[in-house]
Amino acid sequence: MKCTLDKQEKYTVFTVLDEKLNSLVAPELKTELIMLNTEGVSNIVLDLSHVNFVDSSGLSAILVANRLCAQNGGNLVLANIKENVSRLIKISQLDKVLKIFPDIAESRDFIMLGELKKELSGDPKTDEV
What is the pLDDT of residues 24-35, one digit of tens each? Predict the structure, then answer.
């Protein structure tokens, strides 16, 4: 799997550079996202701007990362998803579970707002925004 990582203080932008997020790529994506989580990264922006196709194994990898981020008081946010991917997410009714924003900037703003709320509340596990 081809990807890039942009680690910031409060979040990491993980950009998938493959066009397909399928059973050939999903296990490696899941492993990379789990490793980020074990390193203490609880906020991940998953940039899917290069991805044209996602299958059930790709969705599974995304859902695992979403659960891990939430368990650690953070958020997994999808950014730059294409129409084909968006349609699959809606058909699967995962648009009610996953946080999706049109671009990296809005994703970052969402995460930073969540972090600010956690700081103000004094609760490091608060993940509601």
Answer: 999 999 999 999
Locate tokens 């994703």: which residue?
107
The tally of domains found in the chain comes to 1
CA-only gyration radius of the chain, Å: 14
How far is residue 122's CA from residue 58's CA, in Å, rounded to a whole number?
A: 35
pLDDT(126) > 60 = no
pLDDT surpassing 50 at residue 55: yes
Asked whether residue 128 is domain-assigned, the answer is no
Res 127: pLDDT: 44
- Residue 129 inside a domain? The answer is no
State which amino acid sits at residue 98: L
CATH of the domain at 36: 3.30.750.24
